[in-house]
Amino acid sequence: MFEKGISSQTKRNLAVLAKLKFVRRYFLAGGTACALHLGHRLSFDLDWFSDKPVEPRVIVANLKDLSFFIYPYPLLFPRHDYAGIKLADIKDIACMKLDAISRRGTKRDFIDLYFICKNYRLDYLLELYEQKFAKYNVPVWQAVKSLGYFAQADENDLPEMLQPVDWNHVKHFFETEAFRLAKSWGIG
User: Fold this and answer.
1) b/e map 146-171, b = 16+ CB within 10 Å
2) pLDDT tens digit string along 78-93?
3) Alpha-carbon torsion angle 155, 179, 122, 105, nearest 10
């Protein structure tokens, strides 16, 4: 894991959270989990997911300024242990990033997925995305189409990067990939 992707305060917060019993039902995903896997940028928010919700009053009594989500979709890969907490696998995070891009498309989601694509082909990640959301009838072509839409993302600031990245290069990468995939699937 790349601890440089989180601040020392976030690291301390994770150590405290690891001691709380109810947190064991959750796993960390999103930008911070991605930053821990890849070390490409700084991330501060802690987004926790579970298929088994905890009573909201238990969360409120223990913590503030954290996000806890019910996540009904299956994890395709085993979770990783990091400092006493569960962390989603980077390939599951990629599927979640594809889903996020198809809904809202923030700059940091595109950048996270771009860095994940340095290790995994987008075709493969889309196959996993289709598998993950199969029973929910989420069309994979919608995710592909979203990879070429940057209106919302263009309005966002670039996240604080630890590895250099050019936003125009990221956009070009996804435009090229979306066109190639749409053409190969006959949806272009």
Assistant:
1) bbeebeebeebeebeeeeebebeebb
2) 999 999 999 999 999 9
3) 20
Question: Using alpha carbons only, what angle is made at residue 106 by residues 117 and 159, rounded to the nearest 5 degrees?
Answer: 80
Sign of the dihedral defined by the CA atoms of residues 90, 95, 99, 102, in that order: positive
Specify which residues 68 forms β-bridges with. 48
136-176 per-position pLDDT tens digit: 887 888 899 999 999 999 999 999 999 999 999 999 999 99
Angstrom CA distances, 81 to 3, 12, 37, 78, 112, stand at: 13, 16, 12, 10, 21
| Cα separations in angstroms, 143 against 56, 123, 125, 152 | 32, 12, 11, 15
Q: Tell me the H-state helices in 39-89.
A: 56-62
Q: Comparing C-alpha atoms, which of 68, 140, 154, 49 is closest to residue 111?
A: 154
